[in-house]
Amino acid sequence: MNFKDLILQGIPDELPPAKAYDESLNHAPRRKEILDAEEKKLALENALRYFDKKHHKTLIPEFREELEKYGRIYMYRFKPDYDFYARPIEEYPGKSVQAKGIMLMIQNNLDPEVAQHPEELITYGGNGAVFQNWAQYLLTMQYLANMDDNQTLVMYSGHPMGLFPSHPNAPRVVVTNGMMIPNYSKPDDWEKFNALGVTQYGQMTAGSYMYIGPQGIVHGTTITVLNAGRKISKAGEDLAGKLFVTSGLGGMSGAQPKAGNIAGCITVCAEVNPKATQTRHKQGWVDEVIENIEELAERVKQAKTNKEVVSIAYQGNVVEVWEYFAEQDIYIDLGSDQTSLHNPWAGGYYPVALSFEEANEMMASNPDEFREKVQESLRRQAAAINIHTERGTYFFDYGNAFLLEASRAGADIMSENGKGFKYPSYVQDIMGPMCFDYGFGPFRWVCASGKEEDLQKTDEIATQVLNELRKNSPAEIQQQMQDNIQWIKGARENKLVVGSKARILYADAEGRIAIAKEFNDAIGRGEIGPVVLGRDHHDVSGTDSPYRETSNIYDGSRFTADMAIQNVIGDSFRGATWVSIHNGGGVGWGEVINGGFGMILEGDKASEDRLKSMLFWDVNNGIARRSWARNEEAIFAAKRAMDMNPQLKVTIPNLVDPSLLD
Q: Which parts of the sequence bind NAD(+) (predicted)?
């Protein structure tokens, strides 16, 4: 059978041959033992319901072995033999262009060049899954290939519940991931219910089919590092010769060395997994790899002296870097951490006291001792960071729950009043007031044709639109406009594409609508093929996350999730092609609610109407909430949005003289 026939087949009627476990691939770590004997039977029953009962005797021992060996039933036997990548949209079978576009995005999320653990259907973050198992993938793709524009596919945590009658302006797919009853949203609850096969952790853009490889965060990281450099600048100087120390090269955090190069500094990024390091080096996202700490220190001293722009992967633990650089008095200008500390006990953070292999073994065989090792390592890391910050280092939490987990480990990381952390979240200091409150966030698109020339054309369109908008933009957002124009001009030379022909930039509602309309017009004229619009959930209004996206909300509402829920509800009836809402994300299960969308532009009037309606809401929902929290930049943005669209009426807060409250 050819590719289209295999998609239309869905779950095969006859069992495909069992597959050998490929040790050369980057696999998810073994999950810890958490189910009792009866629950393991239930997990098997849950898995077997995808298959005709004639296969159950064959599959039971196989699935039982997977559950015992890996802590999950992935159904490796059913992974298709065809290659996974974002094919041109016309190569997918189907009756709906929108459904074909979603298939393209799903396959991009599982592309081995993009995904962190593709065999386990995990895109990034250690546990950010597109599906729980391969049966779900097969069935979902079959549904998408058969649906029309009067149907909606309903997805429950990776499971395709089925096709339901709807209408052309409804979303083609509605996705929920990990939507637990609140009292069942602790980390061990994820371990248990994911092992049972009834929920999953969709991360942010993994389970919403909108991951575009590390490029998705390179831009945000570049903007963050540039603005962090502006904060520490003494006389307007740039980052030449300045050192940025961080960690994590798997998944999204692989963006850090590339962003450091674009921002113009020296970057040291530690990574314990050799496969992740090799992948990023092979892809050109990091310039050099060094395994010896003394050699690393000498190389950094040389780079500082010569004011080089260079990114260096240290094959080892970041705690060693912080401690050794303190001993050697190597000054660190900027510091952060991008390990997956939302997932500290299952491969998101590797303790300094153990080798990579020892850690993988212990997290499954002795999770209690592993937890102790992680917390001991966090205390050591925080202590070393404190030494550097006393010498002048600017350290910020990069929204990966480093400060949160360090505080839970008893590290010296709390502020004097004991109510907050010593160090700010990057959203509090940088992205919140400088970008999100003004409505700027990660707008992204994918050229569904797969053609390089379409990506180049869309880059040119976006640059032209931003240049025109900048001419009449207020002074308050001139810096954001200029940073993004500079970014899009240099995007091609920095070779940011991994997987689909995708691009990202930060834009406000005005910019997103204007760019999208020009794309749609170009599609209508036959100049480019269909375009998929989307964004990271890490945006103005998609995510309620008290230690990241909404950490600069100070009215007490940062622990509420109304904004994210309203965002997805509003997107769904304003024209999104698909919407998603997740429990969990970059800061952890139970710590955040985040929503995303995708929109397919087909070059017609219906696409134009949808993009204008949905993109305006998608941004201004967040601006309204941030304005009501009394954020000055958001109040400015809300008033500007009302001037631009008289139908918008936002409740503006009355500000109180603080002296009256004393």
A: 125-126, 203, 271, 398, 586
